[in-house]
Amino acid sequence: MEDRLDLTRLPRPFDPERGAEALAHVPGLSGDRAALIAGTGGSSPYLAGLIAREADWLTGALETPLTALSAEGARLQALDPLDPAIGPELRRGKRRMALIVALADLGGAWPLEKVTGALTDFADLATGVALRAALAAELKRGKLPGMGPEDLETGCGLVMMAMGKMGAGELNYSSDIDLIALYDEERFEDAGEARPALIRAVRKMATLLSEPTGEGYVFRTDLRLRPDPSVTPVCVGMEAAERYYESLGRTWERAAYIKARPCAGDLDRGQRFLDGLRPFVWRRHLDYAAIQDAHAVRLAIRDSKGYHGPLSLPGHDMKLGRGGIREIEFFAQFHQLIAGGRDPSLRLRATVPALHQLSVAGWLPSDAASELVDHYRAHREVEHRVQMINDAQTHKLPANGEGLARLAALMGRDEAELRGDLTRRLEAVHEITEAFFAPETPGPGKAQAAEVPDPQELAREMGVDKGVLARWQHYPALASTRSREIFGRLRPQLLASLARAAKPEEALLAFDGFLKGLPAGVQLFSLFEANPQLIDLIGDICGTVPELALFLSRNSGVLDAVIGGDFFAPWPGNEALAAELGRVLEHEADYEARLDAARRWQKEWHFRIGVHHLRGLIRPEEAGAEYAGLAEAVLRGIWPEVQADFARRHGPPPGRGAVVMAMGSMGAGRLNARSDLDLIVIYDAAGQESSDGRRPLPARVYYARLTQALVTALSAPMAQGRLYEVDMRLRPSGNQGPVATSLTSYRDYQQATAWTWEHLALTRARVVAGPGELSREVMAFIDSVIAPGRDKGAVLRQVAEMRARILAAKGAGAPWEVKVGPGRNQEIELIAQAGGLIAGDPEGWIGDGLRLAVAQGWMHEDERDLLASTYRLLWNVGQVGKLLSDRVLDPEAIGEGGRALLLRDTGAESLEELRQAFELATRSAGDAITEILAREADADAGSEDAEGRPGRTT
């Protein structure tokens, strides 16, 4: 960027004589630059004084302002920290910076961000110089044990946190600076001994910056944003500060830390402190309760300042008044607090970028964001010029006509036009922000609530004892006054939504269970109030899937996903899903945090699939594919994390690494809402005997323990619950074999030892995570095992024997059992797998296996159609059943809503019709399978030995 002042506007001299006097101090100027000096000096007594005092310096600074500022900063940085002239020199630097920045601003040469950035940069520099001087004095007195001059660059354990506008790089022209002084207790053997010296240093630094002298002042310094300022010293230990924020931190302090950054002292340690505060500032769930906190702060400001009633320009506060700067800042900050825990892209310090990003992320309409940005820039320019007139830390417009006329002249604008523009902008900001914090007209939820009957009347209509409503007040979710207030506004709409269920009394009792299980209510009720559509969703869930309502009471954070913008969008695909989880995990600092993040993410997507199924957006078979896709994304995301954590202790995986292979329904890409995962881990140590790490392990032990770590990561209950139950019994030799199998052993086992049922299972095997080359090699081997095909007589005889063993062990199953029993899906899957194995086709699922059986000539087309239609019916029944409960389906126990869902997904007109169809289909399928196996019972009987092992088959 070129270092020159390209003027685009000019101030007018309100007092032409004063303007001429100012210009006389800088002879040789002409044209626009002369007009800039005359207009500035003639309208701002303060700047006229600076022009007179710094005329010699100003002449060169007008030519290359950035170079002049940089040289001034270097001059101050080079001062000896013990030089008594530091105070006067800082004040001289402040005068020069204030003068050239004001001229660049008034002349339109620098945009707002460059102006506020230059002001902030000098504040950072001045704070650093003053802190170094104060600490050097303590070092000289020997009051900082263990510290020497070399520690001055890292603040001798101190860090200054820039807060507010300084933290955001948005200082106004006559701004004070908000600082929090923190010290690192770990830098000292005895922090208590050093503490008094650190406190003195902070006080001296503040005095050096803020004390008015004949040279002026540098910055008024405010240290009151520290934890509990009424009882804590000006310098607080980091550990104590962390404990305070974790236990007592308030919403306004969370908002303040959005803009916080280390500006002087030990910058690296300061950033680590901020990183540790992320859970305090950025809540995991959408934090709509922050809106009410923000509104309470706004009302408190208005009450304390008397800012009520209609807008009046004379004396109006451009910062705190109606439609002012603070309204826009609060609007951005509290939107960030609501959603920034879930979306790290919103964690921006500056107001304008935050508004833009909120629009990009879908939290603000683009036109509203653009309008607020425009008003914010205009408001800040007015604020700066109000302060430039007399270097006053004020945000109020002049209280009389003369003052407004002077302001208009300094801005180079017509007074009447300025008045009109200010009024329009202030009213526009107020209209946008007030609608967010405290809408004057009822929102969608309140409008609906006004139309419903009295809650007790609704309860009577729903056929529920009014005692159900009465006991709610004793639940933990309604323990606080605030939660009761919010819920009182929500209750009519909630009851109206429940009353629309097929069986309102069932829905209300399910909601009672949901409410009873909530540990707290303010956050969730605030979420409902801000998003009334969630109330109808809760009504649907309570009226149809009471167990899902119970799940929600313990995992209400998953509702955040509903308002994330694309909750009801089509399934994104497995690749996009895996990539999204990868991005989520990238933002977490350690292994445990990543596992918890994966659990939160999985719960949201799992909930989304269930809601899509519940509302008919996807069919049961689509839900099955999506549940499997979600599980695959989790495995692809978690497996590298497990390996990386394990490698920190035992070194990288020996050899070529390991793959995770999915079997059973997971391998086939079809799961239900409660499926566990059938997995096998296969590794190739490639001749490497052990790992190379701090605690090396033999390769076999390494991969066994790594596999156990994966199972723990997936199935161990943590703060966010568990991901999946894991079943590894399909590995070679089942529970008797090692939990991880070497590729060589796996090949040998499958080629020489495996049972026929294990080769049947291979038709659904699929590698889902691990190194690409090894994955392809494993899958190529599995294909080679299946591709030669098998003798149909031998395979079907083994299927018949397996069928008989299963029936003997598990019986015929419950009336609505969909998996185990004659004609149920397990038997149909065995027949379909036999079709793939006999044909030597490793691809495909149920329909393909049955089609191959027909092509091979051992199944008739009508038998295939019967088995396929039975499988679909039972799959649909099972998918609905697992969504509703973890037990075998009992239509009498799932409620009216559940029965309606079951009929919808099976296409039956009534429960009796479905029962008859279920019984007929399973009986017919069982008979067909018996017939198929009997037809082929004696075919090629000698192709396998009596054990059913294929090692000696031809």
CATH superfamily of the domain at 606-786: Beta Polymerase, domain 2
- Major sheet size, sense and barrel closure: 5 strands, mixed
State the distance separating the first and last CA atoms. 80 Å
Number of strands: 10
Mean pLDDT: 87
CATH topology title of the domain at 606-786: Beta Polymerase, domain 2
Overall helicity:
55-70%
Radius of gyration: 36 Å
Parts with pLDDT < 50 across at least 5 consecutive residues: 439-453, 941-954
User: Under the CATH scheme, which architecture of the domain at 606-786 would be assigned?
Assistant: 2-Layer Sandwich
Q: Provide the β-strand percentage band.
A: under 5%
Shape: elongated
CATH top level class name of the domain at 606-786: Alpha Beta
Number of helices: 41
Query: What class, by secondary structure content?
Result: mainly alpha
Describe the structure.
With 954 residues, the chain is mostly helical. Among the domains are: 289-437, Up-down Bundle (Four Helix Bundle (Hemerythrin (Met), subunit A)); 606-786, Beta Polymerase, domain 2 (2-Layer Sandwich); 792-952, Nucleotidyltransferases  domain 2 (Four Helix Bundle (Hemerythrin (Met), subunit A), Up-down Bundle), CATH 1.20.120. Helices cover 60% and strands 5% of the residues. Strands 1, 2, 3, 4 and 5 form a 5-stranded mixed β-sheet that branches. Strands 6, 7, 8, 9 and 10 form a 5-stranded mixed β-sheet that branches. α32 (699-715) links the parallel β7 (677-684) and β8. α20 (444-450) crosses α23, α28 (574-586) packs parallel to α30 and α37 packs across α38 (846-856). The longest helix has 31 residues, at 620-650. The radius of gyration is 36 Å and the shape is elongated. The model is unreliable at 439-453 and 941-954 (pLDDT under 50).
